[in-house]
Amino acid sequence: MNKKIAIIGYGKDAVDTYGKQITALFSNNLSIEKFYIDEPNVRKVINADLILVQSYYILRKVKPYLNLESKIVIANRTISKTGFNKIMNIPKGSHVWLLDESMEMSIEMVCLLYELGIRHVEITPMYPGIDRDVSGKNLILLGKSACNTKGAKQIINIGHSLLDIITILDIGEKLNLLYILQNQNIRMGYKEIVSKNFGLSYVIGQTNRFGSELKVLLQVLDDGIIGIDPEGKIYTYNEGAEEIIGINKNNALGKDIAELFPNLPFDMVLKNIHPLTERLIKINGYDVVLSAHPLVNSGILYGVVVIIKKFNDIEKKQYRFRAQIIGQGYRAKYTFDDILGESEIIKKYKKIARRMADSDSSILITGESGTGKELFAQAIHNSSSRKNYPFVAVNCAAITESLLESELFGYEEGAFTGARKGGKPGLFELAHKGTLFLDEIGEMPLNLQTKLLRVLQEREVMRIGGSGLIKVDIRIISVTNRNLRNMISQGKFRKDLYYRLSVLPLNLPPLRDRRDDIIPLFNEIKSQLNVNFTLTKSAENALIHHNWNGNVRELKNYIEYFTSLGIKTIDLEDLPFYREKSHKSIFNSNEEIIFKKFLSEIDKDVEKYIFLLSELDRGYKNKKRMGRRSLYKIARQKNIFLSEQEIRVMLIELEKNLMIKINRGRGGSVITNFGEKVLNYLKDNSMKL
After folding, report:
1. pLDDT tens for residues 102-135?
2. Over pLDDT 70: what percentage of the chain?
3. Are strands 286-297 and 470-471 parallel, antiparallel or unpaired?
């Protein structure tokens, strides 16, 4: 005799949806009667073998009308994968309102979405009867809603909620119909829903029953699962196992597991209750990872679960996990459209770079400072087949050798004093399937050059303090403004590494070789910065014929400088390089020697030293001594990328050159008269430097 189930909900659409789900899974083995909470037919005695209610609130309202012998299930809801993807596509940081049948259900659904992993948007529950103005708001709708949605900015309809697998199992168990779910319908019915991970391992560990409930759960998993009885005979398997290794009822059920996998020690698993750790084997041309786990309760072996995974699937999951670890930080922002200029030479180099993007070979980009080397590197990545994977950048000159090694290779827990608990993946690992961008490669220490060469040759890394090799699939793009060939002859750069890095060399032209682009670039950068001034013809000619040692970066600096002047027309005399001051006029002979040596040592860090000297000068005038921690906090506030350790090293350099005095303890640092002279000179001539 068919079982009878009564479904009670808020409205027809939701109840119909649940009814269709249940009918699809249990076929014709039960009959369904539908009730709606606001209709009169719900206020009579409801006779059914099982009553499914949409919420606890509904249960309280209909409880007086329920047959005492009826079994009750409160719906555990979820959403479809299509609906989930619609929410995931909402822009990060958005605020959306979710409309559901009641306050209870709306809050419950918001909690479910957060639990399913939706973290990038703020979701506020909404329900009928709440007085909210939705004008201009983004709304998530579950099918139809009784709420007024007029004036909403955007409506994202994710479809009606669905019954989660837990609810289906509860229905099957309470009606003794679980055996009906032992077919392919359960997998097909749940391929399109998003379900919470409720811990299959916990279910296996807590029960000795290998009955219907476990079979249903196994059909939902993507991994191949084979159930073995205590004698080593195969008694069940899921669709994943059938897809991966091609087993079926005719050649698998009742067969000894050792016949299917003759080279694996299953006798150790069955006799000694010993797990079989992951083994890489080949089946039907696939690389497959297999493991076996005894199921034991009170010292008694009840069977073994064999788990089979395609190696390619494991790699895809590893990438997803890596993406979660790195978040959205490692992404290339620029494309070839962001590389400005219409001269023939820049068009030529963009064309060459586009062709390089189609290859997986290592690229070495060289050129003077400010020519756009990183811009080209990001554009190449975004035009390559790796564009959907990480673009991981590291500046080889910005950090010490030991820190650079740990950043590149990662480390295991306890590898050194201060190592983070649980260890840390290196940048090689994080760049898996993507691009590793090595900025200022010419500054990499020789010791690390040797290790980098090995990674390029073997495509595998070992963490500091680790013992296992980790396979990595990365593309290397390196940049430098140094002459690596000269460094090779001087013994400062490895010749074999150079040829590994420069499979595809790209030497970018300086701005003085593309003078046709100077004024168009000037105007485009002005537009991007939203500034408004004009150049006289003489000033324009002077810019075109300037030597541009700082290239595009120098050009942008000039535009910011002209903006700070606050005048509408820039003439020849307003150009800094036209009326530069000579440092000889402000320094005595001894100061001149010290300053020249200091200037040659600080190289590209002029702006950072200007920042430190400016803050120390301001502190001196305000009778406030500044320490490195205070300077670090100010740098962060001003978006100047300086670590506390870098500030410490720079302060020592300034004191060595008599520009500041570092007081011990909490005395802070004080700028000297010579330091004030240096600061004034650097400010006046920063464009030239």
Report:
1. 888 888 899 989 888 898 999 999 887 776 777 8
2. 84
3. unpaired
Measured CA to CA, the distance from residue 572 to residue 574 in angstroms comes to 5
What is the CATH number assigned to the segment(s) 511-578? Answer: 1.10.8.60
The model carries a pTM of: 0.45
- pLDDT digits over 584-602, tens only? 457 787 888 888 888 878 7
Domain 336-507 class, CATH top level: alpha beta
**Measured distance CA(297)–CA(203) in Å, rounded:** 12
Instruction: Burial-class residue 255 by CB neighbours within 10 Å (0-12, 13-18, 19+).
Output: middle
- Report whether 137 contacts 97 (CB < 8 A): yes
Alpha carbons 406 and 89: distance in angstroms, whole number: 35
- Token pair for 67: 């047959």
The total number of residues written for the chain in this structure: 689
Q: What is the CA radius of gyration of the chain?
A: 34
Ramachandran category for residue 299: left, alpha or beta (phi over 0 → left; psi -120 to 50 → alpha): left
* Secondary structure (3-state) at 657: coil
Element (H, E) at 684: helix 673-685
Higher pLDDT, 555 or 604: 555
For residue 79, give the 3-state DSSP assignment: strand
54: nearest Cα among 115, 103, 24, 10: 10
Measured CA to CA in angstroms, residue 397 lies from 65, 393, 499, 650 at distances of 76, 12, 21, 14
Level-2 CATH architecture, domain 583-685: Orthogonal Bundle (1.10)
CA distances from 453 to 403, 457, 476, 497 (A): 18, 6, 11, 6
Residue-wise burial string across 219-228, b where 16 or more C-beta atoms lie within 10 A, e elsewhere:
bbebbbbbbb
The two beta strands, 95-99 and 122-126, are parallel
Q: Does domain 204-314 fall into CATH 3.30.450.20?
A: yes
Residue 207 above 80 pLDDT? Answer: no
Q: What does the pLDDT average to over 594-612? A: 83
CB 137 within 8 A of CB 122: no
Using CA atoms, how far apart are residues 6 and 33, in angstroms rounded to an integer? 5
User: Among the listed ranges 170-179, 182-191, 580-589, which one has the minimum average pLDDT value?
Assistant: 182-191
Give, for 593, the enclosing helix (H) or strand (E).
helix 589-602
- Report DSSP state, residue 533: -
Q: With contact defined as beta carbons under 8 Å apart, do 433 and 423 qualify?
A: no
Identify the pLDDT of residue 688. Answer: 54
What are the DSSP calls for 396-452, one per residue? TTTS-HHHHHHHHHEE-TTSSTTPPTT-EE-HHHHTTTSEEEEETGGGS-HHHHHHH
Short-list 389, 407, 399, CA closest to 463: 407
If one compares 298 and 387, the residue with the highest pLDDT of the two is 387
3-state secondary structure of 233: strand
Measure the CA–CA gap between 288 and 310, rounded to whole angstroms: 5
Rounded to 10 degrees, what is the CA torsion of 506, 507, 513, 515?
A: 50
Q: Answer yes or no: is pLDDT of 146 > 70.
A: no
Query: How far apart are alpha carbons 561 and 575 in whole angstroms?
Result: 9
What CATH number belongs to 1-76+164-198? 3.40.50.2300
- Asked if 411 and 423 count as a contact pair (C-beta separation under 8 A), the reply is yes
Burial of 667 (0-12, 13-18, 19+ CB in 10 A): exposed
